[in-house]
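TICKET: design request
STATUS: open
ATTACHED STRUCTURE:
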């Protein structure tokens, strides 16, 4: 890319961000600041829905791991049938669920995260999930529950608009929206945290792709969206928490 290219400035910014040195002596963790919560707080009387814990659902493995990897592809055409709550439980566990007991300040999950910081919150725009009304939900990995955030008129239309007209975002059974809470990672890594957050999002979405293959579902990651509109749709402030990645999920034809 020539130095005078319009994107040259952004490339330098990206390279500097990726190559940011970590000065642990100046991080909040090193300064003795308490770790931020590993899960976004919620009101005690908030409406929560129990999900089936790991080991309680029927074995979803319709394909083995090599087949899931080989068949992985982005799928934008979905059948007009709902996901079961059991299937959604499996997808949530596969992407952000716990694989052991949570300890003070961290929790080991089914996906890797730099420093076990797990700076992502999982939101769901639910359209067709058996037993759930349409609306916006948030996954609570510590208790493996869904928190009903709010109902929204014309949710599918608004999500498509925020996704720059990508209609499959509103035709899915459910669309996953991952939001970053940057301070969770900044607390440990300072300015280098933002690279780690982007890497974490990739880990999570790849697990979703493979888990979908196991239940005859499909997904297609979306990174092109209107940041202000999608943050506003989830009622996020866009500073301390903001959307970083989307992935519509729906059932697909077997074979």
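STATUS: resolved
RESOLUTION: sequence designed for all positions
ATTACHED SEQUENCE:
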């Amino acid at each position: 890319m020539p130095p005078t290219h319009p994107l040259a400035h952004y490339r330098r910014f990206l390279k500097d961000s990726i190559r940011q040195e970590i000065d642990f002596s100046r991080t909040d963790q090193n300064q003795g600041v308490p770790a931020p919560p590993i899960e976004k707080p919620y009101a005690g009387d908030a409406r929560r829905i129990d999900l089936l814990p790991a080991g309680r659902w029927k074995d979803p493995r319709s394909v083995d791991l090599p087949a899931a990897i080989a068949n992985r592809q982005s799928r934008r055409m979905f059948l007009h049938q709902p996901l079961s709550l059991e299937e959604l439980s499996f997808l949530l566990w596969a992407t952000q669920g716990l694989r052991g007991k949570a300890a003070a300040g961290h929790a080991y999950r089914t996906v890797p995260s730099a420093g076990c910081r797990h700076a992502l919150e999982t939101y769901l725009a639910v359209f067709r999930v058996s037993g759930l009304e349409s609306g916006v939900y948030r996954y609570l990995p510590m208790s493996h529950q869904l928190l009903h955030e709010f109902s929204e008129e014309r949710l599918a239309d608004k999500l498509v608009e925020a996704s720059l007209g990508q209609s499959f975002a509103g035709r899915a059974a459910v669309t996953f929206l991952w939001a970053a809470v940057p301070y969770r990672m900044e607390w440990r890594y300072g300015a280098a945290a933002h690279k780690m957050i982007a890497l974490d999002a990739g880990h999570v979405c790849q697990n979703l792709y493979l888990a979908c293959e196991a239940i005859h579902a499909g997904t297609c990651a979306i990174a092109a969206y209107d940041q202000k509109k999608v943050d506003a749709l989830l009622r996020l402030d866009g500073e301390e928490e903001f959307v970083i990645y989307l992935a519509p999920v729906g059932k697909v034809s077997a074979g």
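CLOSING REMARK: The first strand starts at residue 48 and ends at 50. The radius of gyration is 19 Å.
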